[in-house]
Amino acid sequence: MSNDGIDVRGPRFGAALTSAVLAAVLISGSGWLLAFQALVFAIGAGAGVQRSPYAWLFKVAVRPRLAPPTEFEGAAPPRFAQSVGLVFAVIGLVGYAVGPEWLGLAATGCALAAAFLNAFFGYCLGCEVYLLLRRASG
Fold first, then answer.
1. 8 A C-beta contact, residue 5 and residue 73
2. pLDDT tens digits along 30-73
3. CB 14 within 8 A of CB 124
4. CA 39 to each of CA 45, 54, 66, 91, 104: distance values in angstroms, whole numbers, following the listed order
5. pLDDT band at residue 23, thresholds of 50, 70 and 90?
6. 36 contacts 21 by C-beta, under 8 angstroms
7. Buried b (16+ CB within 10 A) or exposed e, 84-115
8. Which of 31, 45, 38 is closest to 105 using CA atoms?
């Protein structure tokens, strides 16, 4: 494992929690809950996905119950994905706070779709965008 390699199960666990939180936001219309998720995204984007609150929960509550990891990935693509999630969460907060409400719903729905893809299908949309941008930039 390289120094920046992370257990692939951690970000998927985080994406599952994110999916639950964002679904609750859509059901409740709670800007406060979306603000909490935005904070989680900000920590993951700023400090690294392996230092986010969901990663901590995975580390202490889930990973000890699993077999040792067999697959690792670089930390940069999931960190970029957290940044993209943060952008959508902030746009959603603007929609919920000052309107229009459909903007909050749409931005939250987009973030939920991306988190759901990662959690349940192992497809990190933000990670794929990161890799495409890296290839395009040479």
1. yes
2. 999 999 999 999 999 999 999 999 999 999 999 999 999 999 99
3. no
4. 10, 11, 28, 13, 16
5. very high
6. yes
7. bbbbbbbbbbebbeeeeeebbbebbbbbbebb
8. 31
Select from 99, 82, 116, 83 the least CA-distant residue to 29.
Answer: 99
Q: What is the pLDDT of residues 80-131, one digit of tens each?
A: 999 999 999 999 999 999 999 999 999 999 999 999 999 999 999 999 999 9
Joined together, the tokens standing for residue 122 give 């192992």
Angle made by CA atoms 81, 82, 85, in degrees to the nearest 5: 90
If DSSP codes are grouped into helix, strand and coil, which group holds residue 29?
A: coil
Would the pTM count as exceeding 0.90?
Answer: yes
The residue written with tokens 């990662």 in the block is 118
Q: Which letter does DSSP use for residue 104 in this model?
A: H
Q: 72 - beta bridge partners? A: 7
Nearest CA among 81, 94, 89 for reference residue 124: 81
Find, among 95, 106, 100, 84, the residue nearest to 22 by Cα: 106
